[in-house]
Amino acid sequence: MKELPPEKGIRNFSVIETTLEKIREKIREIYDPKKVHYIGVDAYDDGNKMEIRYWFLKKESNVVLLVKAPFDYGEKVPSISDIVKPAFVQEWEIADLFGINIEGRVENFFLTPESPRAPLRRGDKLGK
Amino acid sequence: MSIFALSRVKSPWILHYDTGGCNGCDIEILAVLTPRYDVERFGMINRGNPKQADVFLVTGPVTKRCRERLINLYLQVPEPKVVVAVGSCACDGGVFRNMYNVENGVDKVIPVDVYVPGCAARPHQIIDGVVKALEILSKKTKENIELPEYIKERFPSLNDRRKVLEEMRKR
Amino acid sequence: MASESKNKTREIQIKEKVYTTIPFGSQHVALPEPIKFIFDTENEIVKEIKFDIAYVHRGIEKALTTMFDFRKAPYVVGRVCGICSAAHTIPCAVVMERAIGIDREIPDRAKAIRMIALEINRLQSHFLINGHLAEVCGYENVFMHIWRDREMIMDLADMLFGNRVQYDVVCVGGVNRDIPKDKERVLLDKLNEIEKSVEFMEKIFTKDRTLVSRLKGLGVVSKEMALEYGIVGPMARASGVKTDCRVEDDWGLYKDLGFEMVTMEEGDSLARCLVRVRECYESIRIIREAIKSTEEGEISIKVTANPKYEAVCRNEAPRGELFYYVKGTGGIMPDRVRIRTPTLANIPILPEVMKDVSYNDIPPLLMSFDPCIACTGR
């Protein structure tokens, strides 16, 4: 779980790849409100597997940091909103848009009962 | 023209609702009320209260969550009323057409009298559209209301439709 | 007997904490955009807040990967929000350039015009929100004055870019149109007038007794709280956090032109307001410098490849940090576009600050946050 620094021309941010079990530990390790600014939560679906992604900014070196963990469809994803306080809003949003089972999610936070379920998902479509 | 109809055209009050547009048109509607364009010379005031409104300005492509609220507001505005769709996305969906959470325009949900295109609609266009709407308002009465399509869907029997019409005339 | 039973019911009510529920929105005269709050109040003191911010969710992130190719993307994301349209188009164009690998070849003149578009955008947004804040405080006179002066900025935008709200001047690979010499002169003349009206605004928000006593000490956000909740933009700067993406990201010429960050320590509504007013001076200075530093010339480069790398871009919108991520695959449509808007970062602190505030202070407090719901919903 080494931090991969930015590569010129390929990506301009560093990456830490981890697993779903260790993601909370890892974030607790790196997150410090005075030195690291929390940017946001994102998810990614390539058709076979999903990924949860947390974006941070290291204030001293001004480098954007991505912490990501792959998981299978339907797997329960831990929430980090007790470590990073403002994370809950975007976690609920991502949970709605991708149909991810994140701890403490609120149903229909961004979508409406009439809108299509999990619109940003590629594989393993949910009903309707 | 009855004295009520005359006074209605001289001081139409505006209700404004954003159904999920980009804010550009909403800000232009606010700009219409300020000194440069000064829509108050037509006797118009922006009122937040649907029960006092005559002109219903709608912006945005109507997201799924706003749909019910829009219908609710439309029913609360007393008859006769005019609906003005402001902006390209309110007219037919514009750039948001066929996105998954969008209804493609205001006229898919409630009947529209005047369309004001433009992204974003300029204040001059908005004033022009509202003045055109006033002409339509002066011809409307409580008697010649037609039920919109979505209400017909909701109330299939003729008896129920008649009741709804009477209810609307009372307002 | 009767009074006794009355007392008893009152006691029960106090024990069970019966709150009065007040809905605010989604349609309200103080709100130009649909947002809904449900306040549970006790004697007009707000105790619990629920919010619904998704009235404007349209699905733009998905449309960028399925409906529009990457050249059209800047124009589509301009429609995410009409108030900060230029602030959205610029990072989208930059992030696409980075994903193609041509971001270092963009001509300086194009960068300067992008900066001018962004700063004009920021000026009108700050005028807008300060005027609106005065209106919800009940000071309609100031609202009318500020919005009258705002029309000068709208005229400038109309003259330079051909539209009042959606500039659409930025494209992938540069900008669409140059600013000719005669228009530059008009721009510099108008900026002097705008500077005068900023001075007027600063005078009102520092000296006027009504506004100052209404806004001072309202909704204080301490520096620790600001850091803990990761808030961005003028809100963070009003609490003494030194953060501004204009110097942190390098898509523009801000570092070359010199940039002074406006910060205050108080963290209350008045400080947020004053940070916005003082940023206007800085914006005006940047526009002047950007015009002087570059000459008319090449404004765009030819884009031949499709985006194939991963890239991020952070831009300072009028409301704070705007974050774009794109993952290209080599096709004409990117694989994933993520837009993190400033209001999405500022929303989590809202219930915390609104707690134990009197209900009649909620509108000015909310407006000093400057929420942009169209951004939040996307």
What brief labels describe this structure?
heterotrimer; A: 128 residues; alpha/beta; Beta Polymerase, domain 2; two-stranded parallel sheet; 7 strands; B: 171 residues; Rossmann fold; 2 domains; 12% strand
Please specify the SSE layout and strand pairing:
The complex is a heterotrimer of chains A (128), B (171) and C (378).
Chain A (H helix, E strand, L loop, with lengths): L2 E2 L9 E4 L5 H8 L5 E10 L4 E9 L4 E9 L4 E2 L9 H12 L2 E2 L26
Parallel strand pairs in A: 2-5, 6-7
Antiparallel strand pairs in A: 1-2, 3-4, 4-5
Chain B lengths: L2 H8 L2 E6 L5 H9 L12 E2 L8 E5 L4 H13 L5 E5 L1 H5 L21 E3 L6 H17 L9 H6 L3 H13 L1
Helix pairs in contact in B: 1-5, 2-5
Chain C lengths: L1 H15 L3 E5 L11 E7 L2 E8 L7 H7 L6 H6 L6 H16 L7 H29 L3 H22 L8 E2 L2 E2 L5 H27 L1 H7 L7 H7 L3 H6 L6 H4 L5 H4 L11 H25 L16 E8 L2 E8 L8 E5 L1 H5 L3 H5 L7 H8 L3 H5 L1
Antiparallel strand pairs in C: 1-2, 2-3, 4-5, 6-7, 7-8
Helix pairs in contact in C: 4-5, 5-6, 5-13, 5-16, 6-7, 7-13, 13-16
Write up what this structure looks like.
In chain A, 16% of the residues lie in helices and 30% in strands. Chain A contains two helices and seven strands. Chain A starts with a strand and ends in a 26-residue tail after the last strand. Chain B is built from seven helices and five strands. Chain B has two domains: 3-140, Rossmann fold; 142-171. Chain B has helices at residues 3-10, 24-32, 64-76, 88-92, 123-139, 149-154, 158-170; strands at residues 13-18, 45-46, 55-59, 82-86, 114-116. The mean pLDDT of chain B is 80. By secondary structure, chain B is of the alpha/beta class. In chain B, strand 1 (13-18), helix 2 and strand 2 form a beta-alpha-beta unit. The radius of gyration of chain B is 16 Å and the shape is flat. Chain B has a five-stranded parallel beta sheet. Chain C is mainly alpha-helical. Chain C has one domain: Cytochrome-c3 Hydrogenase, chain B (Orthogonal Bundle). Chain C is built from 17 helices and eight strands. Chain C has helices at 2-16, 60-66, 73-78, 85-100, 108-136, 140-161, 181-207, 209-215, 223-229, 233-238, 245-248, 254-257, 269-293, 342-346, 350-354, 362-369, 373-377, and strands at residues 20-24, 36-42, 45-52, 170-171, 174-175, 310-317, 320-327, 336-340. In chain C, the strands form three sheets. In chain C, strands 1-2-3 form a three-stranded antiparallel beta sheet, with no helix packed on it. In chain C, strands 6-7-8 form a three-stranded antiparallel beta sheet. A two-stranded antiparallel sheet of chain C has the order 4-5. In chain C, strand 2 and strand 3 (45-52) form a beta hairpin. The longest helix of chain C has 29 residues, at 108-136. The mean pLDDT of chain C is 83. Chains in contact: A-B, A-C, B-C. The A-C interface holds A 9-13, 33-34, 37-40, 42, 44, 55, 57, 62, 64, 84-86, 88-90, 93, 97, 109-111, 119-120 and C 53-54, 57, 59, 61-62, 98, 101, 227-231, 243, 248, 309-312, 314, 321, 323, 325, 327, 336, 338, 340, 344-345, 347-349, 377.
